Predict the 3D structure of the following.
Amino acid sequence: MGLLSSLRRLYRSQADEARILFLGLDNAGKTTILKLLADGDIQTVTPTQGFHIQSLIYEGFRLNVWDIGGQRAIRPYWRNYFETTDALVYVFDCADRHRLKESGDELSLLLEEEKIIGVPLLVLANKQDLRHALPADEVAAGLNLVAIRDRTWQIQGCSAKTGDGLQEGMDWILQRVKNKGENRHAR
Amino acid sequence: MMSQALSPALEKKRAKKEERLQSHLQTYLNDSSARRSLVAASSDPNESVDGFLASFSQCRDQVEDKLSAILAKKSSKSDEGALECVREELKSLSLEIVNMESLVADSSFFLPTYIMQSSQSSITKLKEEIEATTAELLPKKKFSFRSKTAKPTKPVEKSQEILPAIPATVSDSNSIGPVLSFYGIKDQHDCTLVRYSQDLEDREFMLTNLSNCKIYLKGMCRALYVNKLRNCLVCTGPVTGSVLIDDVEGSTLMLASQQIRIHSTKNTDFYLRVRSRPIVEYTSSVRFAPFAFRYPGIEDALQAANLQEETGEWENVDDFRWLRAVQSPNWSILPPSERICIDETDNALKI
Ligand SMILES: Nc1nc2c(ncn2[C@@H]2O[C@H](COP(=O)(O)OP(=O)(O)OP(=O)(O)O)[C@@H](O)[C@H]2O)c(=O)[nH]1
Ligand SMILES: [Mg+2]
């Protein structure tokens, strides 16, 4: 582990701050969810070219969220953002049934990445406001979440359009990162 | 055709066409007692589950009876006239099905989920039966057209084209779990289909596995998912969320949306109104032009979706597989002389 990352770890170990990574296929709603949590204006969200960072303050806790673009051509770059991640949020567009498998494949590749082994995982089953959205339990089955053994995980149905489910999701994240020491395996 | 004032000749033609359509509808309504009860049921201000069940089962029984009648006659003779007759009968059964779907869609807001589901599955079953019967009794009929040269405003040849506004509930027979897994148009070939705002309003819509089809979505929806199109023309009103396109070839798409992502597409023209840079990936030989679809009411819909202005974003295409500064070889601007315009403003009822 290089000097830079040791420094980052030191910095991160401040008790009231955490680094969260938002991943998922393009069009899943990652940026929209963050915009809604940050300032409520979701009208002007554009597809993410590289990444964008959003700070969210919850109960005096600062979450630095890294929102990475999910287009297929840029997914290989996801791994550049793994360092010192405290929690992983994986977003799925529940109306996009065609890509449930593709999304599951990307997730299982992610979960094998050494740098984020043991990092708590929250799956957001987004766009529940759409009428034919897959319910969260079917997404869980489709993504084969039950096979996950090496970390705590949770799935939460939500909608960035209505805000439903996001509070619950963020509460879960907050709980995990507040006692991050207990969740993480040694790296 | 281009937008311009109607000539008297065109005006007359349109009036005639509407008259024909009207009389066709009238005959159809008179003929079908089931349709009458449908109309009664769906215009009833105190929508009741019982009323729905009664009309629905009446329709279902009627379709089933007609279907067995058709099957019973099949052995008698097989000359051209008899075949034509069978074809007509099957066609009218398909219309009945569409009406049943429309009844379910209209009643969906007061129906309990389990009744929705069971009606959906009876409809699916009837459709399968009709399909099986069609396959058994009728030789395959072939249609085709080339989307690039087709003139969408010219009256066309097919049965579905004389239908009025129809909700497009199509249930997916591979449905996983209790939620209806599909809403949109699926597995269609060689046909023209129109959906109006009441069929689309504020929900997502899918176009899946279509070839040689012309699809007009004359209303607003929340999200559009397009998958596997060959030689199709697709024109839509505004999509308030995003459009996701995958695996399209030899087609023309006119779309208005906040975001548009295009994957694995070839030889296709896009006419876009969009509020962020259109994205392409794993795509080649696609061309872009500004949105050029009109139908009565589109201006209001665009306004409501905040898409009334042309901001010119359609030409700022981003190829995610081409991160260099020079122009991507995978897409180009459609030369103005080759651009088309689909104007359905004088064709409110035509499909
Ligand atoms: N109906 C509905 N639409 C949503 C929801 N969340 C996001 N969207 C829409 O989905 C589209 C994609 O959202 P983005 O936030 O840009 O998706 P993303 O995951 O950041 O995509 P990339 O940046 O390409 O990786 C936008 O048009 C959003 O308005 C939701 O909960 N419901
Ligand atoms: Mg994004």
Summary: Chain B is about 35% helix and 25% strand. The pocket of magnesium ion (ligand 2) is lined by residues A 30-31, 47-48, 67, 69 (CB under 6 Å).
